[in-house]
Amino acid sequence: DLEASLLAGYKKMLNKRKPFPRADMLQHLTLEGQSFTGIKLPITALPCNEIEKGIAIGNNGLAASATTKKNLTQSVREALTRDEPMVVISRIEEEDHPAFDKTGGTAYGCFAAPDIPAFTTLGVYGGVVLRAEEAAMRKEESKDSDRYLYDLSLYREAGKGGGGLFCLDGFNLRSEMGMVNDYRNFPPEQEKTPNARAEECLLWSVPSVVLVAVRKINKGEEILSDYGPQYWATKHFEK
Question: pLDDT value at position 125?
Fold first, then answer.
């Protein structure tokens, strides 16, 4: 079983490197008969400087300089230790909203709980690390699963995983960040732009994705990111 092999190899790597300063930082979850290990949030047992030592930010995206990388590291640390979420999840009721389910199902969106300053890390994207082959299989099983997949290029570039491509799959083990909708396809009078973007990082060697506000987001405003044009091209092709 590919996924079981991946998880076993990944756990072996973590056990060998022992990246976590405390065992109580981890939580163990079971889903559909499979066991998963992840970081338990919020982190309360470590001082701020120790937490920041465990955060590695890539050189792409918002972290274009040493200063912005340091600021983003601090922002991620704040998200890891935050008691109250920055967002609330609400049902999408407006029929002209692109995420509205016209088949009678339920659709949700992610909205700012307080006013959120620019460059605030909104939260960690929950999910399972998969090989690209396994992610492709899941796409075949569910047409909606690609909405929750992020390629982990930072993990590959760091020389881990045998140089192969890995993905973060938030389809089943998603967090609030998995409820963020795309900014496209709103009515012309409601045209939107992304107010958040995904940033890759390593958290104690665990490949991760966080969502960061790219501008001030007002209380009650929907959090919107960019799924990329390929997502919508696929959806139109399926229709």
Answer: 86
Total Cβ atoms within 10 A of residue 88: 14
Residue listed under structure tokens 């967002």 = 87
pTM metric for this prediction:
0.79
Beta pairing partners, 225: 182
Give the integer Cα–Cα distance in Å for 123 and 174. 12
At residue 130, φ and ψ (nearest 5 deg) are -130, 155
Phi, psi angle pair for 182, to nearest 5°: -80, 155
Residue 169's Cβ-side half-sphere holds a number of Cα atoms within 13 Å equal to 22
Contact 197, 122 (CB under 8 A): no
Q: Where are the domains of the chain?
A: 2-85+113-225
Name the amino acid, one letter, at 170: G
Taking the CA atoms of the chain, what radius of gyration do you get in angstroms? Answer: 18
- One of 3.30.428.10, 2.170.270.10, 3.30.2020.10, 2.40.50.90 is the CATH number of 2-85+113-225, namely 2.170.270.10
Nearest Cα neighbor of 29 from 179, 202, 175, 200 is: 175
Q: Which of 86, 56, 50, 51 is nearest to 70 (CA)?
A: 56
Q: What is the pLDDT of residues 130-162, one digit of tens each?
A: 777 777 777 776 656 566 677 776 555 444 544
For residues 223 and 114, what is the distance between their CA atoms, to the nearest angstrom? 12
CA distances from 134 to 6, 129, 151, 165, 183 (A): 10, 10, 12, 11, 28
